[in-house]
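Work through this:
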Amino acid sequence: MLILENIALAFTALISNKMRSLLTMLGIIIGIGSVIAIVTVGNSLSNSISSSMESMGANNIMVGLQQKTAEEETTESGMTFRGPDGYREPEEEDYFTREMLQAYVENFPDQVKTLSISQSLGQGQVTRGTAYANVSLTGVNGGYFMGTDIEMVDGNQLSAKALSGGNAVAMVSDYFVNNLYAGDTKEALGKEFEVLIGRDFYTLTIVGVYKYQQTMMSFTSAKDTQTVVYVPLGYVQEKNHLVGKYSDFTVVTQTGTDTDSFITDTKRFFDRWYHNNKNMEVGAFSMESMVSALTDMMDKVSIAISVIAGISLLVGGIGVMNIMMVSISERTREIGTRKALGATNGSIRLQFIVEAMVLCLVGGIFGILLGIGGGALGAKLLGYEASPTVTSILVSLLFSLAIGVFFGFYPANTAAQMNPIDALRYE
């Protein structure tokens, strides 16, 4: 009952001094609101990145050529130096060949579902009268569509015949159709268009329209957004004069494949061709490791910013201590009267600690509401779904109570140690 009475007294004191209580709680409200807003936006960004990468295949393995690291050499004086690390493009003999990839697939039938291969021809612009669409031309093989989540709006994906023959056909985005054909996919299908890349024009026929999925934050308008035009890989390789040559590819793995172990096996397999290569070596990594690394990075950034925002909680706690000292000074005679009537030091101490806790708890609740609203607004402005966590809300509530106990103890203890006779004489 004593606890309930103290809580009722605390709310009475809070209501009787509304403005003073609000100003005292302001540091708590801003601190907790900032922390929750930051955590909400951080979680939303992390979840969006994770979902995007998982939709691309979290267990897929990216394999590519990378420049060999220059070896260190030590001089007689003990100083070490490295050779030149300037970037070097792969030469003709450095690329993966069709025979290498075929041998790789045949060697790991239980791990490799298919190989997803793409090559860029460049970026350019397609015009139709005064309308335009910014595009990047990317050649893909049949396995690309098994490793990538592409939703068709109209028409068909690139056919096996078109892919094997390197035909001049293309899949364009709904943004492309909106810009050039006012969103009419039926009109767009079967139409030819020219794209200028560098000094060359490439003529392609539209056979399908896919739904463009924005995977990263962008401040570009929908009209100016650059989207991918998918064409057969053979078409791009012919234009790039690299038929049957590959600098990288993605392994779509079978269900249940141990990704980490298979990465090691993949590097070891290709080492037979690249062990004596002076310029290039084979690198491999998985989306799973990228997701984990990005999530860890976002968590660390969120924690760092939250710690900075939490400084206002310290300021708020000092404000609580200050206002409690003022309250105790104003209620000195009340304290003296209670002690004269038999109230113990413990009951006096508990009364003011509870009052400080209630003050911080109410501030914490307002802060949580502010944080959830601010976080949702921030996530919406960035184009992500808000993801507040129950854990952060509960921790914030407990932290606000802890602030009340920590910063309320000294004023409460001061009140408890008062001499009742001196308190009764206080004017």
